[in-house]
Amino acid sequence: MRNYQLDKEEQELSSSIERGEWKPVKNMAAEIKKYAEYARNALKKDQRISIRMSKQDFIGIQTKAVDEGILYQTLITSIVHKYVNGKLVSKA
What we know:
By secondary structure, the chain is mainly alpha-helical.
């Protein structure tokens, strides 16, 4: 068996397990189903909107989306979602 060096995060996780801080899940299938439903609901896009923006901003969004390897609609949705949840902060 090879010796592997654990990084800081892995060491913290290993120590947490050794301290007995982890508890088994009683009904794993039900837990997976519950969190899958949460994910489905969070990702559901069931509302259409129409917005107007400057051509320059639209081209900028498209360019950023290409850089990220995603569709521009997905980028706009992500930006709005982060803003609504307080995770998009101004640099100023």
